């Protein structure tokens, strides 16, 4: 092995990210609620949600309809 091996960047500098599915509304709701429970205050919660691309409204429970 040569001690002067090139460490130049590759021809394709953009990383290839693995495909991931978008979270469904229930997963997003649970994520918002987990962030809210771990946040130190309202500002912290808002900052964390923004960083994750979530909105506070997504954490609200959706009422289920009861069958009669």
Structure class? mainly alpha
Binned, the helix content reads 25-40%
Helical stretch tally: 2
What portion of the residues fall into strands of 2 or more residues? Answer: under 5%
Q: What about the largest sheet?
A: none
Q: Kindly, what is the distance between the CA atoms of the first and last residues, rounded to a whole number of angstroms?
A: 77 Å
- Number of DSSP E strands: 0
Radius of gyration (Å): 21 Å
- List segments where confidence is low: pLDDT < 50 over at least 5 consecutive residues: none
Walk me through what this model shows.
With 68 residues, this protein is mainly alpha-helical. The model has no long low-confidence stretch (mean pLDDT 83). The protein has two helices and no strands. The protein is elongated, with a radius of gyration of 21 Å.
Offer a quick outline of the entry:
This protein has 68 residues and is an all-alpha fold. The chain has helices spanning 25-38, 42-52.
């Amino acid at each position: 092995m040569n001690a002067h091996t090139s460490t130049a960047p590759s021809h394709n500098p953009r990383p290839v990210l693995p495909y991931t599915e978008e979270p469904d509304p229930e997963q997003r709701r649970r994520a918002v609620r987990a962030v809210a429970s771990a946040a130190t205050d309202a500002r912290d919660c808002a900052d964390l949600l923004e960083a994750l691309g979530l909105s506070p409204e997504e954490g609200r429970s959706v009422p289920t309809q009861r069958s009669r």
